[in-house]
Design brief:
Blueprint (H helix, E strand, L loop, with lengths): L2 H13 L3 E3 L24 E5 L9 E11 L6 E11 L3 E3 L1 H9 L8 H16 L3 E11 L2 E10 L14
Antiparallel strand pairs: 1-2, 2-5, 3-4, 4-6, 6-7
């Protein structure tokens, strides 16, 4: 999709109070892999909607218990749970778009640490929350399980207690 078409779609969606993101985000650093089995740069759509209570701090917890990606070394599937907890500011994440965004990782060779941080970067760029935590809880492979936690906070909320992540 060309940048002109992306901008046109964003303008059209703005009329409906939705914002769709499918291009690189300003301020989000991404790296394109040199080795195709290492990691990818992603451009998947994420939609948001206006926060119904922007003046109130409240926590939204989202669980994706059937997250899958692919091991960049072996090409074997990786299974885990992604837990997202955030305090929205002006916009909230639309769940159907999030579901399709997460499904795009199914056939991508990416390390646990990279996927958890990629999800955090993309969600922060899409909805600009006050605070957000993304936890990647990956099932055991070879007798080793891994939990990766990535956090974001605005300067105004950086000194607050960490978000409680539901299990």
């Amino acid at each position: 999709m060309s940048r002109a078409r992306i901008a046109e779609a964003a303008d059209k969606n703005h009329e409906n109070s939705f914002v769709s993101y499918s291009a690189p985000f300003p301020g989000v650093k991404r790296r394109t892999a040199k080795n195709p089995h290492e990691c990818y740069t992603f451009f998947m759509p994420l939609e948001t909607f206006p926060n119904p209570q922007p003046g109130r701090d409240y926590q939204i917890a989202i669980r994706c218990p059937e997250f899958t990606s692919m091991c960049p070394k072996t090409g074997l599937p990786d299974f885990g749970e992604i837990r997202i907890t955030y305090v929205p500011d002006e916009r909230c994440i639309e769940l159907k778009a999030l579901k399709y965004y997460l499904l795009e990782f199914r056939n991508k060779g990416i390390f646990y640490e990279a996927v958890t941080n990629q999800i955090l970067d993309d969600l922060v760029a899409a909805c600009a929350p006050r605070r957000m935590t993304v936890v990647g809880d990956f099932t055991a492979r070879g007798g080793i399980s891994t939990i990766v936690t990535a956090e974001y906070a605005t300067p105004q909320t950086a000194d607050l207690e960490p978000l409680t992540v539901n299990r």
